[in-house]
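Bug #77: duplicate submission created two jobs. Keeping one. Sequence:
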Amino acid sequence: MEYDSLLDRAIENTPDITTGDDRLDVPPANAQPDGAFTRFTNLSSVADALNREPEHLHRHVQKALATAGSLSEGRGRYNGRFTGSDLDAVVEEYVDEFVRCGECGLPDTRLVREDRTPMLKCDACGAVRPVAKRTARSRTHQSREAVEEGETYEVKITGTGRKGDGVAERGKYTIFVSGAKEGDEPTIYVDNVSGTLAFARIVN
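Kept job's structure:
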């Protein structure tokens, strides 16, 4: 009877977990031109949807776009001209690195520190992983090669973005390829580069 009682207690204290990506309802990034700057006007709302601090997301945006910026009243302001698609790609990268569990794929995670190391802990499956190591693995398996606008490259699609675009990596760059699927090895034409993010289309 003691075992049954403990089991019932454990089940009662287990949070309800609903499978499926529809629980991660992230609003599209709103990019507002401001002279030589771009405002991420709903950064705070995006951070809230991801259950993360706006300052943390803001720092990631600066790093991903390789630019300086500021955060005030929940809005980010960054040096340079960026589109909503640019910011959406940055958010997608942030979700993969700091939100989605690498084991079960669910967003039921928390950022914690263990011995000064930032860790991503999943409340759904219990998995724990260092945040920094995931980044290093994902960006060092290929040589550091430049990606330039107007150039063509042969790439391998290794993932799928939140909006369905194929995702490839070339050196330090993450490339979003319209119409590509995981496993494809297309020749692509790069339309735009923003920091370490590039946007391309298939040409073969």
